[in-house]
Amino acid sequence: MARETGRSTLAGIAAEAGVSVSAVSKVLNGRTDVAAGTRARIAALLRRDGYQVASRLGFGVVDLLIATLHTPWAEELLRGTVQAADEAGASVVVSTVDSPGGFTAWLNRATARGTDGALTVLNLPDSSELQRLAAARIPLVVIDPPEEPGPGIRSVGTTNWQGCLTATRHLIELGHRRIAIIGGPEHLWSSRARLAGYRAALEAAGLEPAGREAAGRAGPAELIRRDQFCAEGGRRQARELLALPQPPTAIVAGNDAQAFGVLQALGERGLRAPQNLSVVGFDDVPVASWATPALTTVRQPLAAMAATAFRMLHAPGSGGAGTGEPHHIELATTLVIRESTGPAPRVI
Amino acid sequence: MARETGRSTLAGIAAEAGVSVSAVSKVLNGRTDVAAGTRARIAALLRRDGYQVASRLGFGVVDLLIATLHTPWAEELLRGTVQAADEAGASVVVSTVDSPGGFTAWLNRATARGTDGALTVLNLPDSSELQRLAAARIPLVVIDPPEEPGPGIRSVGTTNWQGCLTATRHLIELGHRRIAIIGGPEHLWSSRARLAGYRAALEAAGLEPAGREAAGRAGPAELIRRDQFCAEGGRRQARELLALPQPPTAIVAGNDAQAFGVLQALGERGLRAPQNLSVVGFDDVPVASWATPALTTVRQPLAAMAATAFRMLHAPGSGGAGTGEPHHIELATTLVIRESTGPAPRVI
Known about the structure:
- Two copies of one chain form a homodimer.
- Chain A is of the alpha/beta class.
- Chain A is about 40% helix and about 15% strand.
- In chain A, strands 2-1-3-4-5-11 form a six-stranded parallel β-sheet, sandwiched between helices.
- At the A-B interface, helix 3, helix 4, strand 2, helix 5 and helix 10 of A face helix 3, helix 4, strand 2, helix 5 and helix 10 of B.
């Protein structure tokens, strides 16, 4: 941590900077309740003498690591992070990290300049990466953890189970009985929670829980699909669902992109929502209201999730167990009813 | 630039850091061809002695200032900037700046930590802001300048005139004769260029240039509309166009969001594209292919525009006239033909 020679005491640095020892100590510990200019001056002196300052910039920088910026979903998370940082007078550095090599390159840059913490999206660093983060004293919060969030890592998610339950119940209340679901990739924690929410809604309504039987005959299992979280995945599955001898009257899509794909599959057959089929999305990205018809969807509070993650980075007890701070927080979804859902068509 | 006292010579700093004077000089001038660790060490010594180092971080940071992150368009620009920065080993700080107060807050943060340059999107800083940027030695490149790009400011745009000409010509080639346009806000340079491109295509085809007469009677002027660059704006104008005694058979939308709105207006009347009306968008944001039907649109090379702007920041002769470097670059659009355009319906 310190150079072998020439290291001043904190008191010496305080005297040199013309501030109190307490102020120097605060800066050393990354506290932000020291005026920015003073903080920068103290941090420079500390670094000169080999001290590791929490942020080498002497002001707030948070890194947002995201695998792809190619989705409206990612953009909402970014927007929330930037907004929370703006309010805190901090800066957000955005990096796309989608490989171990990318992580290393990012970490090198981040440690060279210093950072007050890292937010990763849909990405749980592996144990070697976690060790390197800890060694560099970079706190971490995971947004939308891809696996079951364990106590060793702090994370923020959304109530996926409740969200899909609400969406399915909405369709049941509209009179739908044959309701399909297109889930996301099975390895994702969120996909599993959403599927369970769908099943819970059907069971609560006394409807046959789709997918429990199936073997041998064309039963409700055919209504449970999985695909990538993209429009193409939704279109592919909806094409197959619409081609069933007994197609569903409603589809719960894994996300808004898939719901757009469902609308495309309907269009290909000259069908429309909600007259021929109801569709519910998930996320409520800004473009959800651009669809024809505008998407009924489950709103993930993406901006609030990002803001919460930002605050968790700076919460006391960061990264430690037994501090009484929860290691995982889920923010509630809300159902946004627009025009893509309607009464079930009367089936013969 | 230098403190009054205690300033070392560059040679002295080179000796202290154990590097060549040339390396110190490079760091002082913000060159990046010095290893990151060495650069950071030299930069720290320079700063200690009161030298103004091009980036106070001793490594690359670029600021991206954007009014709103709430559109897929903004996201593509961000993606391009992050990608170019990644390749250069630099970091991108993203800030939303939509007011003079926001600009000042950003500038305070940026000068406190240092930055190698600022990219602003659709935003031309006013003369006071430009002065403050110059005083802080922060180079600037404007992406998609909202006004005619003058020689004093470097900027990157797209070939709006050509893009809209190509889109309109595509419709003419499909047999359309009654072609409407929904433009963006008139104060925007890009909106004016696109409208001119539309007119040029009509004139080149020997078609009555819409909007030249109109006074007194319902003529082609009714086919020239303007609204905000959002889905709601497109829907509003398309509703009026479809309600005309003689509606158009094709609409050139100001951007993809407006084109989505046109599709919604069609849906409200039980009409479809391209059977009843052809629609062309502008931008080719990722969600353009999610529409029903997938949007034919004019692709702006948004990611390439951002990457070009990033490189312009570091180009020699930054900010000076007479260096032979162009102050404004436009990257070509391309027409992406998908499913929302088709042959003109036979009109009675």
